[in-house]
Amino acid sequence: MVIRKEKNEKKKKYDEKLCRLLDEYSQILIVAADNVGSTQMQSIRKGLRGDSIVLMGKNTMMKRSIRLHAEATNNDAIRNLLPLLVGNVGLIFTKGDLKEVREEIGKYKVGAPARVGLVAPIDVVVPPGNTGLDPSQTSFFQVLNIPTKINKGTVEIITPVELIKKGEKVGSSEAALLSKLGIRPFSYGLVVLSAYDSGSVFSPEVLDLTEDDLLQKFATGVAMVASLSLAISYPTIAAAPHMFVNSYKNALSLAVASDYSFPQAEKVKEFLKDPSKFAVAAVAAAAPSSGAAQQDKEEKREEAKEEQEESDEDLVAGLFD
To answer: Model-level pTM?
Structure first.
């Protein structure tokens, strides 16, 4: 009875804490905490202290508290967190910038050796070079089909070798070899899985988007809307400029092919009747600009000539002082 009472009190305190955090914070990062030690977690808490709070716990307890909060506040949007609470995860409540918080979390990753049975989070490549191991250790390399040679009494790896692929389990031979070489290929820390902001859940990749990326995506969306509108002849704000231009082209084509005319078509008709007039006008317009350019060149030459003469006069005067 005493044990059950203590458990109930712990659950109650946890519910109160989580519900209070849900009331105070509108931004939450859902993070995976696999292979994260207690010392590392303490460092992360210290680094985030100020505007962020890390809360860990059993998934069943977190789900229970979130449901209680949703029922008490009629905030159904908070239920979007429930499907995300799978595996060894925790919640980081923050009032700061989500991207900055994620970057701060990334500073506390620590290197770890390749343990037997561990699923490799990345590809592990053994680089070529001298291993410092004596020739009696060549059996490790032979088992793993790593080409080696003996150089100055030590084993040297000839070419880079992909020892472990991402997603594969680390074998005993691979773990032993990496340990002998002093290679700690993996690094672990809190990994952001999802982000929650005022009821919306999105992937952490969204945090990497810049203003230029958003503008590009918006422009692509506008172009798609305009293309669809033009294809089905349905007027929209995106397609309106193109529709006006196309209508003007159609009206201009009709005016050129018939006696009908309007002010914007008169100049085009004159050009079609006598293109030489416009050629003369273009030459006349270009002439002043070319003349001005030639005049500038002549003025620069005169200035350079005057400067040269002045420097020669100063030199002569200096000789007879």
So the answer is: 0.60
